[in-house]
Amino acid sequence: MNILRYLARLTIGRIILWCYAIWYLTTVTCHFDPRPHLWQTSFGLGVIIGTALLISTRAASRGTTALDGWQIFRLYLMPFCVSSFSALVKDADYVLIFPPGWRENLTGFVLIILFVALVCGVKTTPLAKLKPAPPAD
Predict the structure, then answer these.
(1) In what helix (H) or strand (E) does residue 60 lie, and over which residues does it extend?
(2) Residue pLDDT, tens place only, 83-116
(3) Number of domains composing the chain
């Protein structure tokens, strides 16, 4: 029930972020590299860039901007994902973020379409009309 309520309340922005995550996970699944150095480097970049993003996001001319735990987590997760994605697809003939093979593209697109269809379906249920819960931290 909680996952359905979560899906029913997803905003367009959060749906897009989930689609990014699905595309990333599809790429990681297809090109996984178990070498620790790749993941350690990505983690290090995630910490360095995530901290810079956190500092720049919180600092505002009108005072400090409050962020919830998930927002902070995403500030660290995104640079980790970008750096590991880049390392995994190096020399794989990608065009931007798209692999050269139709199967991998199709897999990613189908998973995204299924996710969006699920969210749209849940949004048509009475769960979508429930009052949002306060943010949990």
Answers:
(1) strand 59-60
(2) 999 999 998 888 888 899 899 999 999 999 999 9
(3) 1
Enclosing domain of residue 58: 8-128
Q: Which residue shows structure tokens 């590991």?
A: 84
Is 84 inside a domain boundary? yes
Please indicate, yes or no, if residue 1 is contained in any of the structural domains: no
CA distance 74 to 114: 23
Output phi, psi for 59, to 5 deg.
Answer: -75, 120
The residue among 83, 77, 118, 104 whose CA lies nearest residue 23 is 104
Model-level pTM?
0.82
Which H or E run contains 99? Answer: none
Paired tokens of 68: 């919830």
**What single-letter amino acid sits at 75?**
L
| Two structure tokens written together for 94 | 């990608």
Distance CA 18, CA 79 (A): 16
Q: How far apart, in whole angstroms, are the C-alpha atoms of residue 74 and residue 18?
A: 11
